[in-house]
Amino acid sequence: MSSTIRRAGLLAASGAAVLAFATACGSSGSTASAPASPSPTNSAPATPMPSEPSNATVKVASNGTLGQIVTDGNGFTLYRFDSDTNSPPTSNCTGSCAATWPAATVTGQPSGSGVSGTLGTITRADGSKQLTLNGWPLYRYSGDSKAGQTNGQGIGGTWWAATPSGGRAMAASTSPTAPPSSGY
Q1: Where is the composition biased (Low complexity) (predicted)?
Q2: What does the alpha-carbon distance between residue 108 and residue 92 come to, in Å, rounded to a whole number?
Q3: How far, in Å, CA of 147 to CA of 73, rounded?
Q4: Any idea where the domains of the chain sit in the sequence?
Q5: Nearest by Cα to 131 from 73, 68, 44
Q6: CB 97 within 8 Å of CB 107
Q7: Is the pLDDT confidence value at 57 over 50?
């Protein structure tokens, strides 16, 4: 009987861990509905993030795996979320999603060098202005602890480093261009 109790406890703990991971990744629980009411606001993420530069500067950086990506003025990678929309620009990352993926907020007019897409802003439910690139809301990832990291790339199959045009950065294909020789 004690082994049955232990198995039940392990099953419950495993299920809770899977649920917590899926919620934090934002791959489920995000909807295309209007932003949630500001009652569960997360004005400060659990992991300290760099403060936004006053002029909201956006930069283009070269990444060895992903190519050209967009960063904030401090060099932190900016990401886009597939559950958002760009026409009209809408953020669907709220609540626990926003704790893991804090919005890239700005206080001034956004500007950028090397960016081919249009920079803009949207107003979030809490009144803050979120940076957009070609209409796509931009975010930081709480798992990036220093400039240049891309730890959020591909999480949940929905989070991508943004390209200078606002697209999804993808790793260059490593497949050969010619079929392998058969040895004959």
Answers
A1: 30-46, 171-184
A2: 23
A3: 10
A4: 1-31+40-171
A5: 73
A6: no
A7: yes
At residue 173 the predicted structure's pLDDT band, cuts being 50, 70 and 90, is low
Average pLDDT over residues 154-163: 98
The answer to whether the CB of 112 falls within 8 A of the CB of 57 is: yes
> Distance of CA 103 to CAs 37, 44, 83, 158, Å?
16, 11, 14, 15
The span from the CA of 170 to the CA of 106, in Å, is 26
CB neighbour class for 62 (10 Å; exposed up to 12, middle 13-18, buried from 19): exposed
* pLDDT (tens digit per residue) in 115-150: 999 999 999 999 999 999 999 999 999 999 999 999
What does the block give as tokens for 16?
């809770």
Contact 56, 110 (CB under 8 A): yes
Query: Measured between alpha carbons, how far is 39 from 6 in angstroms, rounded to an integer?
Result: 38
Residue count of the chain: 184
Tokens of 88: 């009209």
Q: Could you give the C-alpha distances from 65 to 48, 76, 91, 171, in angstroms and in order?
A: 26, 16, 27, 5
Quick one: which of 91, 95, 92 has its CA closest to 38? Answer: 95
Contacts of 60 (CB under 8 A, 6+ apart): 68, 69, 70, 71, 112, 113, 114, 115, 164
